[in-house]
Amino acid sequence: MMMDKLLQDSHWCQYSSLMSPKILDHSGSMTEKLAELSGQKPLILNLEESIQEGDLQDCLSLGEQAQTKLWQRKIILGNEAPWLLGYSLAYPATDDSPLKPLQTMGASPLGNKLFASDEVWRLSYQTGFVGKEQALWQHLQPWLNEIDHLLWGRRSLFNFHQQALLIYEVFLPTCPGFNYPYE
Questions:
Q1: FRET pair for 6, CA 20 to 30 Å: which of 88, 118, 125, 164?
Q2: What percent of the chain has pLDDT over 70?
Q3: Angstrom distances, CA of residue 138 to CA of 79, 99, 110, 120, 182
Q4: Pairing of strands 69-79, 163-171
Q5: Domains of the chain, with CATH numbers?
């Protein structure tokens, strides 16, 4: 319950299949789901990784203090066209941390390794619209420059081998399984 309270803000709500596109029902690897829907292998078209100060809400969601430096991974997933923007955050891994393999996998999709583990639990799952006024939109610039409407997104907090991992997924207009601006 504490994590649910930490993840709440004005743009996210607890998941409800009644108001969301069907693809948001998928609880496993989104990479695998997009491969199934498109008949194509999803590729990471762009990757940025850094360690920098996290936003207050993200730090609190991960159980960290404000202004904590976080590992941040931003990707564009697709095949020819971009389908999904992914934004993953965690406390930077030490050499013996279970998160180290996730934070050093380069251009491989995170879900392949994340969902292969027996020691992963989704603690919180929320859906919502992502718009220009949100910090998340700013983090995902310049990839959203051409888009002028709200996008569906989801936010999940995972326990991965007793380590917190926060993952945002923003679904682009070319994503299989979506009809924008609204379904």
A1: 118
A2: 87
A3: 24, 26, 22, 29, 22
A4: unpaired
A5: 2-171 (3.40.1410.10)
